[in-house]
Design brief:
The structure is a single chain. The chain has about 325 residues and is an alpha/beta fold. The protein folds into three domains: about 35 residues, no CATH class; about 80 residues, PGBD-like superfamily/PGBD (Muramoyl-pentapeptide Carboxypeptidase, domain 1, Orthogonal Bundle), CATH 1.10.101; about 190 residues, Zn-dependent exopeptidases (Aminopeptidase, 3-Layer(aba) Sandwich). It is about 45% helix and about 15% strand. It is built from 13 helices and seven strands. Strands 1, 2, 3, 4, 5, 6 and 7 form a seven-stranded mixed β-sheet that branches.
Length: about 325
Amino acid sequence: MSELSPDAIRSFQQQRGLNVTGLIDEVTARALEESRWKLGDRSLYLRESPLIRGDDVATLQSRLTEMGFDSGRVDGIFGAQTESAVKEFQKSAGIAIDGKCGPATIISLLRLSKIVSGGLPSILRESAVQKNRGPALANKVIVLDPSGGTSESILYDIAVRTEGRLLALGASVFLTRGPHNEPSDIERISFANSSSSDLMISLHADTYQNNVAHGCATYFYGADAHGVHSVVGERFANLVQREICARTDLLNCHTHAKSWDLLRLTKAPTVQIDVGYLSNEGDLARLNRPDFRDVIAEALVIAIQRLYLATEDDAKTGTLRLSDLRSAGIRR
């Protein structure tokens, strides 16, 4: 790894949807290790922690999914759901059912994947779950994840303002942190997964080496290297990005697919929203205003509601208000 040039590292990070720094941090080192495995290099099976990770696992998951076997999200981690999908495939292929992806299973995959296609059940299921839950927020579980650090008070305040509005709409809301604690990424992912959440929103404020960079950007799970993304996550990212930019004068820095652990490993559709740059005087001045944070909170709530509205009931970006939800019978 140490022989890689900064340009090569940056190219790899960009390809994998990681933060582009040109430096090998812990996340990049893990991604480099995972990328060296191709399907067939080793046997894949469910084992006790640490679980097997790698591009070979992601390829296996992708092929199983394309053939109609539910291996869950393509995250490159061989867990219980992947093992179950392997067993179902082995049963259908008439080979030994042991849940291990060894030579016989790989040969069958290569032979059958060209002629068997069952669609993308994980994508269809993710969209179906969203639609079947209905438009009301009363049965939704929303996890809000305000980042700490120098932006702690600003982001926590936005989360609290959003929480109040969501509670008024009947949603169940959980915050990953209080005003003075700072859980790790793994702890926040575990918290969201244990909460059986319908949606997770991570709030961040960016910084840059100069004060020119400014604006708002939203990120959702997507890995170009494996050709996968979260359908609901991408839709919500687009909704919330448009709502914030329509209601404020923040520069639209658009939505982007990333494979950060928070987006990849959280089971529910998850987005990260960078609501501005603390290193930019204009963005910082906006975020320091309580009325501006109120606008951000309302934009988040409206975007959440629009995510669950049927297309024919949806409204134009920037036009829906909380009072509209009450008159429509959606707000309690």
